Amino acid sequence: MAERSPGTRRALWFVLSLVFAFLYIPIAVLVALSFNEGGLPTAWSGFSLKWYASLAGNAAILQAALNTLIVALVSTAIATLLGTLLAIGVEMRRQYGKGLEALIFAPMIIPDIVLAIALLSFFSMLNLTMGLHTIILAHVVFNLAFVCSVVRARLKSFDWSIVEASADLGASAITTFRRVTLPVILPAVIAGALLAFTLSVDEFIIAFFTAGAGRASTTLPMQIYAMIRFGITPEINALATIVMAVSITALTLSQRLNRGVIGQ
Amino acid sequence: MRFTIVSPTRLRSSLLMAPALAWLTALMVVPCALVLALAFFRRGIYGGIEYTFTLENFGLVFDPLYAGIFLNSARIAGTATLIAVIIGYAAAYAISAAPRRLQPVFLFFAVLPFWSNYLIRTYAWIVLLNREGLITQLLRWFGYTGEPPSMLYTEGAVIAGLVYNYLPFVILACYAPLSRLNPELAEASRDLGASALTTFRRVILPLTVPGIAAGAVFVFVLSIGNFVTPALLGGGRFQMIGNLVYDQFLTANDWPFGAALAMALIAIMLLVLMTQALLADRAAGRAAEARGDADG
């Protein structure tokens, strides 16, 4: 870039500071309040973990956390398997149609509310009792698309001739996969799985529509939504801080793995 | 290439793709087709579905009452998109002008909030904007004694929430073309006597249109179908298409009309995506032209 005058440079730094303030102040306030003894934004009355302790004693929240974990783990496992296989299948073809591309891309861009009502209509037409299992079925749809796109990105630079070489040297398809393909794509598979896990933990609308009646299959985002509609409580701040910490950790990890892949 | 070599690859590829494609077909294509079909049926007297063909539901979408909500949604989503693009482009420009080694760090921290829960990011704005929230406290601290301003449950709050939630993506989308920009183009423009503003308007901006378009489409599409932000920050007073669809399915129990609304939403989305593809094509043409001129 051409040399910039000190005035321009100051202006650019000013823009950056403003944007980062805008992005981080709302979150920072939330996190700070979760440690505020009094719990109210009106005054700081000392550091305290009591809102976290009160979460641990809340049976509804614990149940919701458990439900979320079950949905996220199962849907991630299925999506990682299906998404990885899909990615390999697509990339080993030298050409594929636009229809296939659109079908794989669709779950990532279709509005949540549309997929949510579509699945609700579908499940109720089948007279399926809804619960955690229907949320899992639904979450796999978008999760597998995301895993697939992460793994495909890795396979773009994959040299398929080493697969042929392995086969020529007498390795079976399974041995070739285990010893040649998998080691290359593994970081991307793990990155995709972490991404899927976070998406599932955070997903609200589709879970809300496919959870069925009753509180038994309430997930954490559904619980948070209900709490927010009820009003501001210090417990939400604490719960929000924990959920944010989990998502950000998982995705930072995912990002690092992926960067490692790209950097190679 | 011998047929016998190609064929097993295709077969193996099909087998690998089959489970995922079956899942997507059963749990996305079929349900979406069902919603499309549902939109052509009549609502039963007791809220069920009467299986007689009708176009009424689509007619109702254009009823002034609902068309008004569509226009309202488009206005709110459009405003949020415009603001997000202006802030996001400025941020991306500032990042691309920062020292090379700092750029990935800035980019990482710009996107980081995007990875936390959407509900929580929206809730953070309730904490800021409510009558006893942080902004009111700040005003008091500066000596303001009047009634607390009502900021929550306004259209402004909904727009702020949408901009906040989707800004990171705009930054990311605009940064990509800005960082690839050939600095010689801007230098040439300056050397030929163009002012900084003209250089930006005639050289930099046209070459970064694809990024702006991608970011804008993302914000607009996600905003217009949003139902969480209007519900939480608009307090249910500002209905958008997403809320309308929600109501038809979970409260009014008029599934066929809800389905027609969802299809209208998809139609808008496709329209926007096609416009973007068109813009991107034209911009690619311009970029090729610029490269050709520079070479020549």
Automatic annotation (TrEMBL), chain A:
Domain of life (superkingdom): Bacteria
Membrane topology of this protein: Multi-pass membrane protein
Entry keyword set: Cell membrane, Membrane, Transmembrane, Transmembrane helix, Transport
Subcellular location(s) per record: Cell membrane
Residue intervals of the ABC transmembrane type-1 domain: 65-254
UniProt xrefs under CDD domains: TM_PBP2
Gene Ontology biological process terms, A to Z: transmembrane transport
GO-annotated cellular components: plasma membrane
Disulfide bond found in the keyword field: no
The keyword Secreted is annotated on this UniProt entry: no
Annotated TM spans: 12-35, 55-88, 100-124, 130-151, 180-199
UniProt xrefs under PROSITE patterns: ABC_TM1 (PS50928)
Recorded family membership: Belongs to the binding-protein-dependent transport system permease family. CysTW subfamily.
PANTHER family named among the record's database cross-references: PUTRESCINE TRANSPORT SYSTEM PERMEASE PROTEIN POTI
Stated name of the protein: Binding-protein-dependent transport systems inner membrane component
